[in-house]
Amino acid sequence: MGNHYYKVMIVDDELLIRQGILHYINWQEEGFQIIGEASNGKEALAMIASEQPDIIITDIVMPVMNGMAFIQHVKEQYPTIEFIVLSSFADFDYVRATFKSGVVDYILKPKLDAVTLLEALHRVTDSIEKETKTPSNKATIDLKQTLKKLINHYQIDEDIGTLDAQFLDPQFILVEERRHFPNKDQEKGVALSDDATKVILIEDDEQQSLYLINTTPEAIKAISQRAKEMAHVSYLISDAFTSLEQLHTRFQADIQLLRQAYFYLSNQTVLTKDRLPERKIYASMFDLNIFLLLFKQNKLTEATAYLDTHLEQIQADYLYDANELKNFLGNALFNVTIALTALKKETKTLEHKKYQYFNAINHATTFDAAVDHFYRFIGEVRAIVDETKPQPSNNMAQLLNYIDTHYDQSLTLTELADAFHFNPSYLSSYFSNHHNQGFSDYLTSVRINKAKQLLTDSDLSIADIGSMVGYGDHSYFCKVFKKQTDFSPSKYRKVQ
Fold first, then answer.
1. Which of 177, 239, 256, 171 is nearest to 211 (CA)?
2. For 163-211, what is each residue's pLDDT tens digit?
3. What is the β-pairing status of strands 6-11 and 198-204?
4. How many Å apart are CA 338 and CA 200, to the nearest integer?
5. Using an 8 Å Cβ cutoff, are 57 and 51 in contact?
6. CB atoms within 10 A of CB 295
7. Would residue 31 be called left, alpha or beta, if left means φ above 0 and alpha means ψ between -120 and 50 degrees?
8. Which has the closest alpha carbon to 336: 306, 284, 386, 293?
9. Residue 418 within any structural domain of the chain
10. Domain coverage including residue 455
11. Is there a domain that residue 390 lies in?
12. Tens digits of per-residue pLDDT, 367-406?
């Protein structure tokens, strides 16, 4: 039986770009087949029915039919085709809007090379394979496609009443599960299944899954309660509704709004519209020129403090456009690099890495992650600006000593940062760069080492020991202890 090749179409009005993509990699060797090229969306649409591509690589700004309109047309007629979007920095805001249409990935044209292209292609094929390997029969697949169309407000062939009749219980909710550590071996949808008659996975990727749940009002309360108890997961839950006719409305009014809020409130376990905190509307008072002036005067601490005030105000306005925040951080990043060059600092390494930081900020799914990437960049800037290069050992020793003497409290990175007048994101980067462990890993190791000592040298109960080393939750203490030592606390005590 012959090899399976994923069929790829290239759409770009620039011939040189198309030719470059064609020659970047050995397509067949990597498992792909180029089945066509087009110079605009209209030309590409005419080819799709006969060529049936699996993946389309498309520019966003093109004559006749631009990439945005092209993607929307294709997704309406061929929802299984996946897209990789090409963009320049200038049209980056435009590109972000395409993700709402189901684009899997994008590539910045200045960074387009063989490695970047292959990485994007493999992310797309992983998504395709995950979709095709999900165990389901044809009826379930058809229903899932219909639900996707309803969510996107597309026309469907089925009667809504007939669709509703396939579900036994009176109410529906949409639930989006957000996994904080997607690389961990986590079972999906654990909090959702026990109390639901029917759970349908509508959208799924590494970090999040969107479910339609058919259930009863009583069970909805149970689902919400159980979701609160889950570790390393957040749930975005829509208002209940009684017909699939309301699916698009609930998705737009609830899930889309909660997605905006989650970006800033990712520490919340459950987000519903009626449980959102008070929103404080952000009125921009930030002056980039002041920030850059402080920076040029080598007052980096004052500059970051000025920036922190601005960022805290944005976070309090949790419906502030996440793309605006990312644009702001990206703009500051590029301006700082330009200012460094003007100050005659050596920036060769940073010039290369700034694109990595820019990309990481734009891929960030939470406010904390975006700001953390920015402050990692600032950490590198600080090393360049500080020409006297003072040894960090004294600061580091004080940080470690503070943790060693406060491990028994509910110590957080934010509390440690406050104690030493650091920005939390910068402290996280500083700690990792100047110690062989991150803050959380070091705190855990201190606590577990102390617990091991108490288990060996005392007759205290395991619950008391857990509490004494900073774990108020007995079951969580046991879970962390076993992960660190491969023993439960009781077994560890027995073998000593």
1. 177
2. 888 888 889 999 999 887 655 445 565 556 555 567 888 888 778 889 9
3. unpaired
4. 50
5. no
6. 24
7. left
8. 293
9. no
10. 441-495
11. no
12. 999 999 998 888 888 777 665 444 445 678 888 888 988 8
pLDDT for 134 equals: 52
Query: Does residue 135 register a pLDDT over 80?
Result: no
What is the C-alpha separation between 60 and 83, in angstroms, rounded?
A: 11
User: Residue 75: what pLDDT?
Assistant: 81
Instruction: Give me the amino acid identity at 399.
Output: L
Between CA 324 and CA 362 the distance in angstroms is 11
Kindly report the CATH number assigned to the domain that includes residue 41.
3.40.50.2300
Q: Is the pLDDT reported for residue 264 higher than 90?
A: yes
Considering the domain architecture, whether residues 200 and 268 belong to the same structural domain is answered as yes
Supply the pLDDT for residue 60. Answer: 82
Task: Provide the residue type at 277 as one letter.
Answer: P
Which residue in the block uniquely carries the two structure tokens 């930030």? 286
Dihedral sign computed on CA atoms, order 158, 164, 168, 174: positive
The pairing of beta strand 198-204 with beta strand 233-237: unpaired
